Amino acid sequence: MSAKSKIGPVSRDGERIPEDVRKAYERLAVRLTGSPDLVVRLFDRDVAIVQAKQGGWVDSRKEKEAAGGRALFEVGDPAVFDFKKARLANLCELDPRDTREDLADAYRLPRSSLQENPLIERIVAYKIPVEGEVTGALRERLERRLRRAIKNY
């Protein structure tokens, strides 16, 4: 995560998120932080997230688990993780990766991994609609269109 990047919000006010999308976010949160509450906050502004007694973050309404203290997100505020909050919540590495070189160094990637995909520049798509029964006339018209498309490329 770069120092300027942000995570969230996942939904706009009142927008319903499909259940499978919510579950995917929750599984990711459990894998990264051990608790789904941190990600639930991205969907529900009525949840305040506070530090847990066992470490990590929980819904403030879970009194037995909550340690109290200052909330990571207050009720009503949009949940947007900037780098500082994401690092605090263990959603990213401890130091930012602002450039491709930083990323390559951190993950010990070869310099060749920093290059753009050369195939991306060469991909050109044409839509040539074909309707009706394939006859000799349709075949000739289609061949002309294909030759023109290839020539213009």
Description:
- The chain is α+β, with helices and mostly antiparallel strands.
- It has two domains: 19-114, no CATH class; 120-152, no CATH class.
- It contains five helices and three strands.
- It has helices spanning 19-33, 37-43, 83-88, 100-106, 136-152, and strands spanning 49-52, 57-59, 66-73.
- Strand 1 (49-52) and strand 2 form a beta hairpin.
- The longest helix has 17 residues, at 136-152.
- Number of E strands: 3
What count of domains describes the coordinates? Answer: 2
From the N-terminal CA to the C-terminal CA, the straight-line distance is 38 Å
Strand order of the largest sheet: 2-1-3
CA-based gyration radius? 25 Å
* Helix fraction by DSSP (H/I, runs of at least 4): 25-40%
* Strand proportion: 5-15%
Please report the number of helical segments: 5
User: What is the 3D shape?
Assistant: elongated
Flag low-confidence runs: none
Tell me about the biggest sheet?
3 strands, antiparallel
- Please identify the structural class as seen in this structure: alpha+beta
